[in-house]
Write a sequence for this structure.
């Protein structure tokens, strides 16, 4: 890895993530991207692997800076695995705000990557936010200000059984249900997003995680694991009686 | 690989396939999945690699149990290769029927995987059913009760030459023609499905297989091969004069 | 690799490319492919990796033979990476014309592959044509006869910064802007195509290439590289002052 002295370069993170800024986007691109007129600078985060984790990271970043969410794309990627990567654009009046937002998002991407589990057979992704903001709202339609939970399982059959267990374990409200044909970019996943009170969302996510890990482990000899430390672990221990 | 004591777990098979059941699906998911009211339990099969083979496996399974086909999705997968995985849901009144259907499908997945050929350059998939039922009908529009043949070749150019040779070799009726842009999930394949009398379908499949294997072998040093034994082999020898 | 004595076989090239011909396509396939009535033979090129390079190769091939472009598909492929493969069909009255077109395209695929750069983190693709013909026009809507430039960067964030730099460096006219959600097959890329005078297109391509390579190098320790020699290199040295 080399560093870059390009003014656009902000940094890198796990899951093949790069963070960049554009101070004063070219006018032809501005038109193609349908940018609002008050936006002059952009911050961009994109990864080969992961979706909800990086969207949560951006969600926190825009809460803490004078930036707003512009677009969220979920390419079919994961470097040969069955899920998504991401391509997320935020905007602001000032390039320093955009740079700060992307710095925060790169740091939080590392944290959220703790809840991505990859084995030689498939993958799982979990995310939890105590209070969803506009990025999570744009991506999944979840209400702003409410607790938010996300789970994806691949191969897709695992995702459905995770979803069923999670929804039976807790009285959360389903906000999005995604399949290989609907809502995804043809990924091999069943994904659910839900909102509700914090305790209910946590219970649902943790139940899905328990079931998903057990089922994925039946498929290969290697342990499902991600590039950083599971961050729901402490929560997990606390909630299990 | 660990086993699972979850009530949902049925088993695993080749091509990263997992089989699961859900006894009494959650009511919110039921609504999202648009399940008919008489269905209370589900059986689910999904794989990272393969499409027609697993659909044929499910097709046999529903013929032999009190279950029916609910949905068939073809995610863009194959673990970095140019084709599909699958996500198939069957339904029944009784979870034991669904479990039996998935057990049959897991076993037959192994058999059908004999006609998946993967090299470092591309892949081929073939399938043949003496009498198509409702799963093959839902997936490809082939008439119920008629013999059915399927062939996919990747990179796509190979698939087209396979199709041309197969259709010239035998008077089958084309029921589906799929390309990277139409009918697939943007896979790098040309796929044809056809019906007709048994002999005609077999001749077409075997001619496509002969041409596809020869062309795929020109692309890399390794032999195209799958996870189990080609099951059309005996048929093949019998038909070649 | 074995050679093939099938009459359809033309040859292989880098990036898992195969070239084939079909003399007198089956009438059912002819209908499905919506072939014009004066076309009786086909030439087919398809690859697991690459898009613009092979389209440029075909573009030259049809200029130099009595063939015409029939269809261009961009499957989501690149063997586990974040981009496209390709599936391109040309047609002619004579199979010898089609064979010649595919021979030319296979040879030029090797040349154009010099501007595909792949690292363990992502990939870049560049293409330049001094005078676009009907294949480039069909694929990207670029005007026939004008100079044409193409650049794709993955992960997508890199592609956007490449595009911004290229468009600021040179007064080219943007003809296509593609994102993971619009215009691609859900690839993890931002792609731009542009036309203009030769010097302007070259300047834009070279600026995008310089920025893209620097950013991609920040993501992994291995050097981004392709299967053949960069062909814009001499142009590059000449233009840099």
């Amino acid at each position: 890895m080399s560093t870059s002295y390009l003014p656009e370069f902000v940094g890198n993170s796990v899951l093949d993530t790069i963070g960049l800024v554009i101070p004063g986007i070219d006018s032809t691109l501005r038109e193609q991207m349908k940018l609002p007129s008050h936006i002059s600078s952009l911050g961009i985060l994109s990864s080969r692997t992961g979706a909800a984790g990086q969207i949560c990271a951006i969600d926190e970043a825009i809460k803490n800076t004078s930036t707003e969410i512009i677009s969220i794309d979920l390419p079919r990627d994961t470097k040969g695995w069955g899920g998504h990567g991401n391509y997320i654009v935020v905007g602001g009046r000032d390039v320093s705000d955009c740079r700060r937002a992307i710095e925060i998002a790169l740091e939080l991407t590392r944290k959220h990557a703790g809840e991505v589990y990859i084995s030689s057979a498939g993958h799982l992704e979990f995310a939890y936010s105590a209070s969803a903001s506009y990025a999570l709202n744009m991506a999944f339609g979840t209400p702003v200000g409410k607790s938010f939970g996300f789970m994806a399982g691949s191969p897709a059959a695992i995702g459905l059984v995770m979803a069923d267990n999670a929804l039976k374990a807790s009285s959360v409200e389903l906000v999005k249900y995604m399949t290989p044909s609907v809502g995804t970019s043809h990924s091999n996943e069943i994904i659910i997003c839900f909102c509700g009170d914090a305790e209910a969302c946590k219970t649902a996510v943790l139940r899905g995680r328990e079931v998903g890990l057990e089922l994925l482990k039946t498929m290969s000899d290697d342990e499902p694991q991600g590039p950083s430390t599971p961050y729901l672990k402490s929560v997990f221990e606390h909630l299990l009686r």
Q: What stands out?
A: The first helix of chain A runs from residue 27 to 32. Chain A has a mean pLDDT of 95. Chain A has two domains: 3-114, 116-239.
